[in-house]
Amino acid sequence: MAVRGFTLLEILIAMAIFTMIGLASYSVLTTTTDSNSISKQRIAKLEALQRAMLYMERDILQAVPRAVRIAGEANGKVISGGRDQIESEADGLALVRTGWQNPLLMLPRSTLQAVGYRLQEGQLQRLYTLRPDNVIGAEPKVVVLLDDVQDFSVQFLIDSEDNNNRTLDWQDDYIGSVLPRAIAVEIDSLDFGLIRREFLLASEGGNPNAPD
Fold it and tell me: Which spans are transmembrane here (predicted)?
Protein backbone atom coordinates (compact mmCIF):
# COMPACT_ATOMS: atom_id res chain seq x y z
CA MET A 1 0.00 0.00 0.00
CA ALA A 2 1.50 3.30 -1.07
CA VAL A 3 1.90 6.02 1.55
CA ARG A 4 0.57 9.39 0.43
CA GLY A 5 2.86 12.36 1.21
CA PHE A 6 2.08 16.03 1.68
CA THR A 7 1.53 18.17 -1.32
CA LEU A 8 3.48 21.42 -1.80
CA LEU A 9 0.32 23.41 -1.16
CA GLU A 10 -0.29 21.66 2.15
CA ILE A 11 3.30 22.34 3.25
CA LEU A 12 3.01 26.02 2.33
CA ILE A 13 -0.27 26.32 4.23
CA ALA A 14 1.28 24.66 7.32
CA MET A 15 4.31 26.98 7.14
CA ALA A 16 2.00 30.00 6.90
CA ILE A 17 0.02 28.86 9.94
CA PHE A 18 3.17 28.31 12.02
CA THR A 19 4.52 31.71 10.92
CA MET A 20 1.32 33.44 12.03
CA ILE A 21 1.43 31.63 15.37
CA GLY A 22 5.09 32.66 15.84
CA LEU A 23 4.38 36.30 15.01
CA ALA A 24 1.40 36.37 17.37
CA SER A 25 3.46 34.81 20.16
CA TYR A 26 6.28 37.32 19.59
CA SER A 27 3.82 40.21 19.67
CA VAL A 28 2.32 39.01 22.96
CA LEU A 29 5.79 38.52 24.46
CA THR A 30 6.94 41.99 23.34
CA THR A 31 3.80 43.63 24.72
CA THR A 32 4.23 41.84 28.04
CA THR A 33 7.91 42.82 28.27
CA ASP A 34 7.16 46.46 27.42
CA SER A 35 4.32 46.58 29.96
CA ASN A 36 6.61 45.14 32.63
CA SER A 37 9.30 47.73 31.81
CA ILE A 38 6.77 50.59 31.92
CA SER A 39 5.41 49.31 35.25
CA LYS A 40 8.92 49.22 36.75
CA GLN A 41 9.59 52.78 35.56
CA ARG A 42 6.33 54.03 37.06
CA ILE A 43 7.00 52.25 40.33
CA ALA A 44 10.50 53.76 40.47
CA LYS A 45 9.10 57.27 39.85
CA LEU A 46 6.41 56.76 42.50
CA GLU A 47 9.04 55.61 45.00
CA ALA A 48 11.14 58.70 44.19
CA LEU A 49 8.11 60.94 44.80
CA GLN A 50 7.36 59.24 48.12
CA ARG A 51 11.02 59.57 49.14
CA ALA A 52 11.05 63.28 48.23
CA MET A 53 7.90 63.88 50.27
CA LEU A 54 9.37 62.03 53.24
CA TYR A 55 12.48 64.19 53.09
CA MET A 56 10.39 67.36 52.99
CA GLU A 57 8.05 66.23 55.75
CA ARG A 58 10.92 65.35 58.04
CA ASP A 59 12.92 68.50 57.36
CA ILE A 60 10.03 70.96 57.64
CA LEU A 61 8.34 69.37 60.66
CA GLN A 62 11.70 69.33 62.49
CA ALA A 63 12.50 72.97 61.65
CA VAL A 64 13.97 74.96 64.53
CA PRO A 65 14.47 78.73 64.99
CA ARG A 66 18.24 78.55 64.54
CA ALA A 67 19.96 81.30 62.57
CA VAL A 68 22.97 80.41 60.41
CA ARG A 69 25.99 82.44 59.39
CA ILE A 70 26.20 83.40 55.72
CA ALA A 71 29.73 84.03 54.45
CA GLY A 72 30.82 84.09 58.08
CA GLU A 73 28.36 86.82 59.05
CA ALA A 74 25.44 86.42 61.46
CA ASN A 75 22.10 87.67 60.13
CA GLY A 76 19.48 86.52 62.64
CA LYS A 77 17.31 84.90 59.96
CA VAL A 78 16.10 81.38 60.77
CA ILE A 79 14.27 80.63 57.52
CA SER A 80 14.13 81.99 53.99
CA GLY A 81 11.92 81.05 51.09
CA GLY A 82 10.49 82.28 47.84
CA ARG A 83 12.01 83.58 44.62
CA ASP A 84 15.76 84.13 44.18
CA GLN A 85 16.67 81.81 47.04
CA ILE A 86 19.67 79.42 46.95
CA GLU A 87 20.03 79.81 43.16
CA SER A 88 16.69 78.18 42.41
CA GLU A 89 15.11 78.59 38.98
CA ALA A 90 11.73 78.74 40.77
CA ASP A 91 11.14 79.10 44.51
CA GLY A 92 13.73 78.05 47.04
CA LEU A 93 13.55 77.11 50.71
CA ALA A 94 16.29 77.13 53.35
CA LEU A 95 16.01 76.27 57.05
CA VAL A 96 17.67 74.44 59.92
CA ARG A 97 16.21 71.23 61.23
CA THR A 98 16.96 69.16 64.29
CA GLY A 99 16.92 65.39 64.69
CA TRP A 100 19.99 64.61 62.59
CA GLN A 101 21.09 61.43 64.28
CA ASN A 102 24.55 61.44 65.82
CA PRO A 103 24.66 58.51 68.28
CA LEU A 104 26.77 59.32 71.36
CA LEU A 105 28.05 62.38 69.45
CA MET A 106 30.61 60.14 67.78
CA LEU A 107 30.55 62.04 64.47
CA PRO A 108 32.32 65.42 64.16
CA ARG A 109 29.12 67.38 63.52
CA SER A 110 26.06 68.82 65.19
CA THR A 111 22.67 67.16 65.51
CA LEU A 112 21.34 70.21 63.63
CA GLN A 113 21.41 70.33 59.86
CA ALA A 114 21.02 73.24 57.45
CA VAL A 115 18.90 72.08 54.50
CA GLY A 116 17.45 73.64 51.40
CA TYR A 117 15.25 72.82 48.41
CA ARG A 118 15.49 74.28 44.92
CA LEU A 119 14.67 73.64 41.26
CA GLN A 120 17.47 73.47 38.71
CA GLU A 121 17.36 72.08 35.16
CA GLY A 122 14.09 70.26 35.81
CA GLN A 123 15.41 68.62 38.98
CA LEU A 124 14.08 69.08 42.49
CA GLN A 125 17.23 69.16 44.60
CA ARG A 126 17.87 68.88 48.32
CA LEU A 127 20.91 70.70 49.67
CA TYR A 128 22.49 70.12 53.04
CA THR A 129 25.64 70.92 54.96
CA LEU A 130 27.48 69.02 57.66
CA ARG A 131 27.22 71.96 60.06
CA PRO A 132 24.71 74.82 60.37
CA ASP A 133 27.59 77.33 60.27
CA ASN A 134 30.09 76.29 57.61
CA VAL A 135 33.45 77.77 56.87
CA ILE A 136 33.56 80.41 54.16
CA GLY A 137 33.65 78.84 50.70
CA ALA A 138 32.20 75.48 51.75
CA GLU A 139 29.76 74.12 49.17
CA PRO A 140 26.58 72.26 50.21
CA LYS A 141 26.03 68.68 49.19
CA VAL A 142 23.33 68.23 46.54
CA VAL A 143 20.92 65.28 46.21
CA VAL A 144 18.51 65.02 43.27
CA LEU A 145 15.09 63.99 44.58
CA LEU A 146 12.91 64.23 41.46
CA ASP A 147 13.38 64.63 37.71
CA ASP A 148 11.01 66.18 35.14
CA VAL A 149 9.77 68.86 37.54
CA GLN A 150 8.26 71.88 35.79
CA ASP A 151 7.78 74.17 38.79
CA PHE A 152 8.41 74.33 42.52
CA SER A 153 6.74 76.87 44.78
CA VAL A 154 6.64 77.55 48.52
CA GLN A 155 4.13 79.46 50.65
CA PHE A 156 4.20 80.49 54.30
CA LEU A 157 1.35 80.90 56.78
CA ILE A 158 2.13 84.10 58.68
CA ASP A 159 0.50 86.01 61.53
CA SER A 160 -0.59 89.47 60.46
CA GLU A 161 -2.51 92.33 62.04
CA ASP A 162 -5.30 94.28 60.34
CA ASN A 163 -7.19 96.92 62.35
CA ASN A 164 -5.92 95.32 65.58
CA ASN A 165 -7.25 91.93 64.46
CA ARG A 166 -4.75 89.11 64.13
CA THR A 167 -5.19 86.94 61.07
CA LEU A 168 -3.34 84.14 59.35
CA ASP A 169 -2.44 84.67 55.72
CA TRP A 170 -0.50 82.70 53.12
CA GLN A 171 2.33 84.63 51.49
CA ASP A 172 4.74 83.64 48.75
CA ASP A 173 8.01 85.03 50.11
CA TYR A 174 9.27 85.00 53.66
CA ILE A 175 12.62 85.69 55.29
CA GLY A 176 12.38 86.05 59.04
CA SER A 177 13.75 85.50 62.51
CA VAL A 178 10.60 83.63 63.57
CA LEU A 179 9.30 80.41 62.05
CA PRO A 180 5.96 80.64 60.22
CA ARG A 181 2.88 78.80 61.43
CA ALA A 182 2.92 76.45 58.44
CA ILE A 183 4.71 75.85 55.15
CA ALA A 184 3.08 74.71 51.91
CA VAL A 185 5.02 73.29 48.96
CA GLU A 186 3.75 72.70 45.44
CA ILE A 187 5.49 70.47 42.90
CA ASP A 188 4.40 70.54 39.27
CA SER A 189 5.63 67.25 37.81
CA LEU A 190 5.33 65.92 34.28
CA ASP A 191 4.60 62.47 35.71
CA PHE A 192 2.22 63.32 38.55
CA GLY A 193 0.80 66.76 37.79
CA LEU A 194 0.42 69.37 40.54
CA ILE A 195 1.03 68.14 44.07
CA ARG A 196 0.52 70.32 47.16
CA ARG A 197 1.47 69.49 50.74
CA GLU A 198 0.93 71.67 53.79
CA PHE A 199 3.01 71.22 56.94
CA LEU A 200 2.07 72.66 60.32
CA LEU A 201 5.19 73.56 62.25
CA ALA A 202 5.34 72.35 65.82
CA SER A 203 7.59 75.11 67.14
CA GLU A 204 7.13 78.81 66.65
CA GLY A 205 9.23 81.75 67.69
CA GLY A 206 12.09 80.99 70.01
CA ASN A 207 15.65 82.28 70.18
CA PRO A 208 17.17 82.42 66.71
CA ASN A 209 20.66 82.30 68.20
CA ALA A 210 20.09 79.20 70.30
CA PRO A 211 23.24 77.05 70.63
CA ASP A 212 23.62 73.66 68.94
Answer: 7-29
